Amino acid sequence: MKNFAITLTLLIAALTAKAQNYEQYGINTDTNTPEGLKIGDKAPNFRAKNQTGESIDLNEVLKDEKVVLIFYRGYWCPVCSKYLKNYKDSLKLITQKGARVIAVTPEKQEGVQKTIKKTDAKFEILSDTDGEIMNKYGVEFKVTDKYEKKIKTFLRADIAENNNQKDAKLPVPATYVIGKDGIIDFVQFDPNYKNRASIKSILDAL
To answer: Could you give the CA distance from residue 174 to residue 72 in angstroms, rounded to a whole number?
Structure first.
């Protein structure tokens, strides 16, 4: 009984610490805690329109190319913009490996266009305002009120409005490398939005 009590106490402490850690990055753990997908999982299919209005179907793309799937938060996120700019000089290296880069964001098309202007992105960006793709890949979370106010104050952005939604929701900025067989070969998933997959790690996975 004593050992059980100790184990239970340690488990509660670990869960509490995890919740606190997540909340410092704006993740409301009262609603759901995103866990993402794992290496070896089958990548869920999706269909959405890119920035030019073309319909992109993952399974169709995978018939010819691997996919580097990136989730980012919005044009207002300086960390996201800096990261996406990295692909400007590295995109050719990725395509030479037989892969296509597809980015997914919860922001509406107006935000996507601002992102493209900021980053000069030459890859496809899908607007996922209803959260369907983010949910399938286990990255979506509801933002804490404190973090939502912080973004409004310091970055002059309304997350919910930018995403054309009532509630402020964002993705963990994860990266998945998906093989032509539809299996996830690489995952970078970190609640800390400052940590992103390096180009080198992506190329190694390809």
So the answer is: 8
Q: Which CATH architecture has domain 2-205?
A: 3-Layer(aba) Sandwich (3.40)
Q: How confident is the model at residue 78 (pLDDT cuts 50, 70, 90)?
A: very high
Residues forming a β-bridge with 70: 103, 175
| Type of residue numbered 80 | C
* Domain ranges across the chain: 2-205
Classified as helix, coil or strand, 141 is strand
- Residue 100 dihedral angles phi and psi, to the nearest 5°: -120, 135
The DSSP secondary structure of 6-70, one letter per residue, reads: HHHHHHHHHHHHHHHHHHTTTB-TTT-------TTPBPPP-EEE-TTS-EEEHHHHTTT-EEEEE
What is the pTM assigned to this prediction? 0.90
**Largest Cα span, the chain:** 63
Task: From residue 21, give the alpha-carbon distance in Å to each of 28, 169, 173.
Answer: 11, 18, 16
